[in-house]
Specification:
The chain is α+β, with helices and mostly antiparallel strands and about 525 residues long. It has 14 helices and 22 strands.
């Protein structure tokens, strides 16, 4: 029965404002979100909708529905397949990649997708003299640091020349940092492009109401299969309990990152729970440059002092496993399964602290209220604080909203804090250690090594692994790196998580991806 007619624009506005439709079935009133519109409960407000300018999976989950890259991850895997490029060839020495581009594709503003557009995108990120380089900063341009030049061969052929063989290149092109934006839209909007995004994807941008909703609508000119819904509304709901309440009340159709303690509420009729293992690691960054954690013994003591099994089983309700090092076990081919996690051993921790003369040390601990892959960060932080205090360390927690937290942590902990929570979800075993453990990745050099860890042997292994063309040799190098990093303990290695989401029974064709991205083009809402 058709209960009410809606204009397309009115439908989106109602959804963006979280307005539910109420209608009568004999004997009761039923509240539902608008038909044809998928409403997603996100964990935070996005920072930007420019894929080259952001780092958080929270933002990426929106972006992959607006934009596309030359390659993408094959559904259900981290294997690379064609997207805006239909084919490619690699030179014998591994330094030249030539891509054939998909014909007949246009950006959502009507401008053509071609080799010039591809060149514009990578030059914008990598060339300081590019006229739109100032639309950055581009914090993950590291992903393409091996690119020496991008050349237009013809309208549908583009060639990348690398400064050395770089094994993760195709995978990085599939990562959201490699998503292709409209040069015309960048030229029109300049530094405001992140509020006016234009790509080639199945959905196009409609509006962004700060701290309320980002709305995307079906791109009727899309080159591929039409999106299954009229629109998607991404609502930032920072508090996990509020997201759960909205999901139970019917205010949202899909919720990501369900708190472990709330999963049981969605086991009955009316909801479906999706789970997917992926390359995730939750850890504590330790300030190795100054203060107590400049001493390796104190860093090791922290790893022994924290009862990670209790965190995984009691706080996270068994939805994660204890981490043994910096590489997630989801990268099975590169994972060092000979390493055991640091055991919970408070006596060993006390002995190391005594040896280092660090008993009673004062520590400042940055904790976030929520964020991409952060699981249950406040209870986890509180449990960690208690465990460290039990071995004689005095820990003061400072709590921040997610984007504020990143603004404090990413520039480095020097002069501010001794430790900070962090989580990464990555696409290749190179990504996290290269961006967050190398000496050349200290924040003042543009990286994410916020604790200032430095080990020349680790640096050499990471450089060798990313240029090795043989996967077995890459695996050997990564495993050796993991053993050294575990011993040096620049982080407390806490947990590897299995991601989850819940949908209402009105949502069909939804599935989680090991990339932790949220591809919604094929999702339908009945």
């Amino acid at each position: 029965m058709k209960l009410m007619s809606w204009t397309r624009r009115g439908l989106f506005l109602a959804a963006a404002g979280a307005v539910a439709l109420t209608f009568w079935i004999p004997g009761r009133a039923v509240a539902q979100t608008p038909p044809g519109v998928l409403i997603v409960g996100q964990i935070a407000e996005p920072k930007s909708l420019d894929p080259a300018a952001v780092t958080a999976v929270n933002d990426f989950r929106i972006l992959v529905n607006i934009y596309e890259g030359l390659t993408r991850y094959k559904s259900g895997t981290l294997e690379v397949e064609p997207s805006l490029a239909t084919d490619w060839s690699i030179s014998d020495d591994g330094t030249i990649y030539t891509f054939t581009l998909r014909e007949g594709v246009s950006f959502q503003d009507g401008s053509p997708f071609n080799a010039e557009a591809v060149k514009f995108n990578f030059d914008r990120m990598l060339d300081e003299n590019h006229p739109y380089y100032d639309t950055g900063p581009f914090p993950l341009s590291f992903f393409f640091g091996a690119v020496e030049s991008t050349e237009v061969v013809d309208d549908l052929t583009v060639k990348f020349t690398l400064n050395a063989p770089y094994a993760p290149f195709l995978s990085n092109l599939a990562y959201p940092t490699g998503l292709i934006v409209s040069p015309t839209a960048v030229a029109a909007n300049g530094k405001d492009f992140g509020r006016n995004p234009v790509g080639t994807g199945p959905f196009k941008f409609a509006e962004w109401r700060s701290n309320e909703a980002v709305v995307v609508e079906r791109n009727d000119a899309y080159w591929g299969d039409a999106a299954g819904t009229e629109a998607v509304v991404f609502r930032p709901i920072t508090d996990a309990n509020t997201r759960v309440a909205e999901m139970l009340a019917g205010g949202i159709d899909l919720m990501v990152e369900v708190p472990p303690t709330s999963l049981g509420q969605f086991q009955g009729d009316g909801f479906s729970v999706a789970e997917q293992a992926g390359p995730h690691v939750w850890f504590l960054i330790l300030n190795a440059k100054e203060g107590p954690f400049a001493d390796k013994r104190v860093r090791q003591a922290a790893n022994y002092a924290i009862n990670k099994e209790a965190i995984v089983n009691d706080v996270l309700e068994g939805t994660a496993t204890v981490a043994a090092g910096p590489t997630p076990p989801a990268f099975a081919w590169a994972y060092n399964d000979a390493l055991d996690p640091y055991p919970y051993d408070p006596d060993k921790a006390r002995a190391l602290l005594a040896e280092a003369g660090a008993e009673g040390a004062e520590l400042t601990f940055y904790v976030t209220e929520g964020g991409s892959g952060m699981l249950d960060p406040v209870p986890m932080g509180t449990a960690i604080q208690a465990d460290l205090q039990a071995v004689g360390l005095n820990v003061k927690i400072e709590t921040y909203e997610w984007n504020t937290f990143l603004g404090e942590v990413n520039p480095g902990l020097e002069g501010k804090a001794d430790m900070a929570e962090m989580a990464w979800m990555t696409n290749d075993p190179d990504t996290l250690p290269y961006l967050a453990l190398r000496s050349e990745a200290w924040p003042d050099k543009g990286g994410f090594n916020s604790g200032y860890y430095s080990n020349p042997q680790v640096d050499e292994l990471l450089e060798a692994a990313r240029t090795a063309t043989d996967q077995a040799e890459r695996a050997r190098l990564y495993r050796e790196m993991q053993a050294i990093v575990q011993e040096d303990a620049p982080w407390v290695f806490v947990a590897n998580w299995k991601q989850n989401a819940v949908t209402s029974d009105r949502v069909e064709n939804f599935g989680l991806e090991p990339s932790f991205l949220l591809n919604l083009g094929g999702v339908e809402k009945n």
